[in-house]
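Incident log, entry 3
Record: Phosphodiester glycosidase family protein (355 residues)
Problem: checksum mismatch between cached and fresh output.
Input:
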Amino acid sequence: MITVKRLNRFLMLSTAPFVGIILCLLLLQQPLVINFTEPVEQFVPSNDIRSATEGIKSDLDTAKVLAESTSSSIQRTTELYNSTSKTMQSIANMTAAQAKKPEAVYNRRIQSKLGVPSEVVDSDRIRIELFKVNPGTYHGFAMKIKLKDPSAMQMALDDKLGSSQTTLQAVLRGGAVAGINAGGYAESGGKRYPLSTTVQDGKYVTGFHPSIKDLAFVGMNKEGKLIGGKYFSKYALDQQEPVFGATFVPMLMKNGKKTVIPSKWKNTPRRAPRTVIGNYKDDQLLILVIDGYNEKGSSGATLEELQHKLYTLGVQDAYNLDGGGSSSLVLNGKVVNEPSDGNLRKVPTHFLFYE
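Fresh output:
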């Protein structure tokens, strides 16, 4: 019993320091505290806020003034632009009207010499006026044409060389409003081929042939202006930029002056049905188609008579086209002239006009 008591005391004395240390640690330990720090707002002192606000207000006032000034400036500029545009348009209209006056005066001069048209075709693309020609020694028709659109005049030529058709057939097939026979032709094996240099769609149909035996080319360029004359080199004709054209003989007028008519063509035949094309200073075209009973030289007009007629009418350049039984004039689906063969002759080329 004594031994056990002693043992207990010994154990208590042995462990007492450790127990005390543990108690001390437990009593002295600080509780764990977690601090959640919120962002701290930086406050601008009240004087600085007032100053910044006033600065912003001042800037806004300035911007408003500038905006009002700019708006006012834009409005004044717009008003000035509109006013200037109206003035310029008025000047343009006046200039256009003034520009048309000489043209109108010139046209009236032409009209006074031709008389009153018996038939008129007028569209956005073309204006055609038909007149009767009857000076006593011969009779026929004159057709004055204003091309408002260059494409309103074209040339009919079948893709198959050697084929031919009447002017009426060409007009109807092409949907044209008018047409005349064009260049001459060479006949071989029952077929008719276009004579010498012929241009279609800007291309040479059978190549370029230098002008020989008084032959003259006549056609139109891309601007819708009549071109023609004698060409001894392809380069010379290329410079004219022909879109289409055909060849016959002779040339009758150049730059408002009569050209020399070769004696051969004055008398072979002397009188005959004729087809002639020419132009005025303002690029209007004049076509003469003269009737005759046959090709024996006893009826129709001489080239000198037509040359004089063209001169008095003020034509600048003029070219004789194929005549005799080839002469034909079609307008509004009907044959206007009286073909000397009794019927329209089939030829390779025709000049057509479109509404």
